[in-house]
């Protein structure tokens, strides 16, 4: 759709340019070379008209393309990267898990109608939002961290930076603060004015998903199976609740029996639904490639995790990441940039929310 509009505009520009050229040639032909001097001002004004037209078309193109850019706030809010980074550093220093929780918030935002901070909206009389959808209720956390960053950003650059961009930056900083890769965050997203609980319920993959369901849910967002496997490496940090991995440790066969027995101690077969367990027992708060080493050892915590290494299409890639932390870091960063570019609101769409929890009045 964007592509079509762009081609259409540039065809128009070429047509205008050749019409101007033909006109100049016709004038020379009709009036003779001796009168060309008199025609120079006319030719000049036609040339500048053509130039103006071309630049107008170029401007239109960039608006239509609606591209994000890492320098989006470099003039309007130069302190933005430092504010986000220093707030995240304080928060993660106090509670390392928060790096994981903010990363997950970003994933859950982007997969539901794009990276538009829809997940941050509280329910209202006119819509039921995403916070109480099944994948998020009693599970997604870190909203108050985004509030704190937002209020620091508002103090420095009022009404300028979207909550969606703050979330994208905070997720990146959290990962890099706990030892993960760094990447350039593209900016210029705007905030949604509505949110949908049912979209959150249907677009986010669940812990009992099969490999083909996982691949399909990422494909629906324009992400490849490789992206899916790299992004799942986020489960190298953070915690999960017993209710989400109980059936894997009690009922599945594709699991190391010692690992299953150890995990059952923190997660009884009945009760204790909210008991927390780290995804990665070895380095629970360090963003490394041990998630993949765990999968190869059949020590994935969720059923969906172990699906990536269970004699399927992703086995080879999982093995590669398990022995090559650099390859994982590189692919994770690239996939995060692609995930962060899912259907952003740009230009005049959406708004710059003043409070990340509520739509502007
Ligand atoms: C591939 C499909 C995925 C499934 C089925 C899935 C599912 C889950 C589940 C069930 C939990 C535990 C929640 C709880 O018990 O409260 C969780 C936690 C987490 N997920 Fe995923 N996830 C997936 C992909 C991702 C992706 C792509 C990311 C980020 C790029 C991510 C980041 C995280 C993080 C960091 C945590 C820990 C959060 C915390 O400790 O607060 N997940 N995920
Ligand atoms: Ca969203």
Automatic annotation (TrEMBL):
One of its GO terms (biological process) is response to oxidative stress. Substrate binds at residue 205. One of its GO terms (cellular component) is extracellular region. It is an enzyme of class 1 (oxidoreductase). PANTHER family: PEROXIDASE, PEROXIDASE 72-RELATED. The chain crosses the membrane at residues 20-40. Keywords: Calcium, Disulfide bond, Glycoprotein, Heme, Hydrogen peroxide, Iron, Membrane, Metal-binding, Oxidoreductase, Peroxidase, Secreted, Transmembrane, Transmembrane helix. The record marks 104 as: Transition state stabilizer. Ca(2+) 1 binds at residues 109, 112, 114, 116, 118, 130. Removal of H(2)O(2), oxidation of toxic reductants, biosynthesis and degradation of lignin, suberization, auxin catabolism, response to environmental stresses such as wounding, pathogen attack and oxidative stress. This is Peroxidase. Belongs to the peroxidase family. Classical plant (class III) peroxidase subfamily. Ca(2+) 2 binds at residues 236, 280, 283, 288. The active site is at 108 (proton acceptor). Pfam families: peroxidase. Its EC number is 1.11.1.7. PROSITE patterns: PEROXIDASE_1, PEROXIDASE_2, PEROXIDASE_4. Binds 2 calcium ions per subunit. Binds 1 heme b (iron(II)-protoporphyrin IX) group per subunit. Its main location: secreted. Disulfide bonds join 77-157, 110-115, 163-356, 242-267. Its cofactor is Ca(2+); heme b. One of its GO terms (molecular function) is heme binding.
């Amino acid at each position: 759709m964007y592509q079509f509009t762009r081609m259409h505009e540039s065809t128009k520009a070429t047509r205008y340019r050749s019409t101007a050229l033909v006109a100049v040639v016709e004038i020379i032909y009709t009036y003779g070379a001796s009168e060309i001097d008199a025609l120079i001002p006319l030719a000049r004004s036609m040339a500048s008209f053509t130039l103006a037209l071309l630049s107008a078309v170029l401007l239109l193109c960039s608006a239509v393309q609606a591209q994000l850019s890492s320098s989006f706030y470099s003039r309007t809010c130069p302190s933005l990267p430092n504010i986000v980074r220093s707030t995240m550093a304080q928060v993660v220093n106090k509670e390392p898990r928060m790096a994981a929780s903010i990363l997950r918030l970003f994933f859950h935002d982007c997969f539901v109608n794009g990276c538009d901070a829809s997940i941050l909206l509280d329910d209202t009389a006119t819509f039921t939002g995403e916070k109480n959808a099944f994948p998020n209720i009693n599970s997604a956390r870190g909203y108050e961290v985004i509030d704190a960053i937002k209020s620091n950003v508002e103090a420095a650059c009022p009404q300028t930076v979207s909550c969606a961009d703050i979330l994208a930056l905070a997720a990146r900083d959290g990962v890099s603060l706990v030892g993960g890769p760094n990447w350039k965050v593209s900016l210029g997203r705007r905030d949604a004015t509505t949110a949908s609980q049912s979209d959150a319920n249907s677009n986010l993959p669940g812990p009992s998903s099969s490999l083909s369901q996982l691949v399909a849910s990422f494909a629906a967002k324009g992400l490849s199976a490789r992206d899916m496997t790299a992004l799942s490496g986020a489960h190298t940090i953070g915690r999960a609740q017993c209710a989400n991995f109980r059936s894997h440790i009690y009922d599945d066969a594709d699991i190391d029996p010692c690992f299953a027995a150890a995990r059952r101690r923190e997660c009884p077969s009945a009760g204790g639904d909210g008991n927390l367990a780290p995804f990665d027992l070895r380095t629970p708060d360090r963003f490394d490639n041990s998630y993949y080493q765990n999968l190869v050892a059949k020590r994935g915590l969720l059923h969906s995790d172990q699906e990536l290494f269970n004699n399927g299409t992703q086995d080879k890639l999982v093995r590669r990441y398990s022995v090559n932390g650099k390859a994982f870091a590189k692919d994770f960063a690239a996939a995060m940039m692609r995930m962060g570019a899912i259907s952003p609101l740009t230009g005049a769409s959406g708004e710059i929310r003043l409070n990340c929890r509520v739509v502007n009045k």
